[in-house]
Amino acid sequence: MSDIAILKEMIKDTATVPLTKNNYGKNQVILEEATDYSVTVNGMPDNDQVIVIKTDAFSAPNAIFKGNRGECKRADFVIIADTDTKKRIIFMELKAKKDSETEIIQQLTGAQCFVAYCQEIGRKFWQQKNFLNNYQSRFVSIGHINVPKRKTRIERSTGNYDSPERMLKIDWPDYIEFNHLAGRK
């Protein structure tokens, strides 16, 4: 059984975001944060190769953790893809305008912890010792979503955006391509 198939057994449908087809018949996902704003990711892999999880769909663990260091926060979405050429986990935080970088790092880190928990669930309860191994992580912050679009969007990144501190920052997006989020390597 593939990692994606296991995740689809593990995660409730209410905590996932389904793929749709765009006007050209290609896979896309529309990431909506409440009803205020959304971002479209085009060029998504086939449905059996990807799962999109709304990681803030469950209540924050405030009953257990104090939250003094941001450990109760989670990013908005995680895209986990296993294609023929790429194994990626893309952590995404959407902001209507802009938020502090420290808070965004905490949210991305919290989502990373959520995926680590899912990884252990797959290893222990599905007896898959290599569950979610060899995936590369990407961290993305998308801002100024509900602000009127500019002619060109602004992107900032330091390196491969492979840690919350080196996230890819995209402002004023009309849409985003999956391959861009996943990176080349």
How does the SSE layout of this entry go?
Layout: H1 3-10, E1 20-21, E2 27-33, E3 37-42, E4 50-54, E5 77-82, E6 87-94, H2 101-125, E7 136-143, E8 154-156, E9 168-171, E10 175-177, H3 178-182
Parallel strand pairs: 3-10, 6-7, 7-9
Antiparallel strand pairs: 1-2, 2-3, 4-5, 5-6, 8-9
Supply the key terms:
28% strand; 4-stranded mixed sheet; 185 residues; 6-stranded mixed sheet; globular; alpha/beta
Summarize the structure.
The protein is of the alpha/beta class and 185 residues long. The chain has helices spanning 3-10, 101-125, 178-182; strands at 20-21, 27-33, 37-42, 50-54, 77-82, 87-94, 136-143, 154-156, 168-171, 175-177.
Mean pLDDT: 89
Radius of gyration: 16 Å
Number of strands: 10
Q: Strand order, biggest sheet? A: 4-5-6-7-9-8
Give, in order, the helices and strands.
Answer: HEEEEEEHEEEEH
The total of helices stands at 3
Instruction: State the distance separating the first and last CA atoms.
Output: 25 Å
Strand percent estimate: 25-35%
**SS content category:** alpha/beta
In helices, the fraction of residues equals: 10-25%
Major sheet: size, sense and barrel closure?
6 strands, mixed
Shape: globular
Poorly predicted runs are none
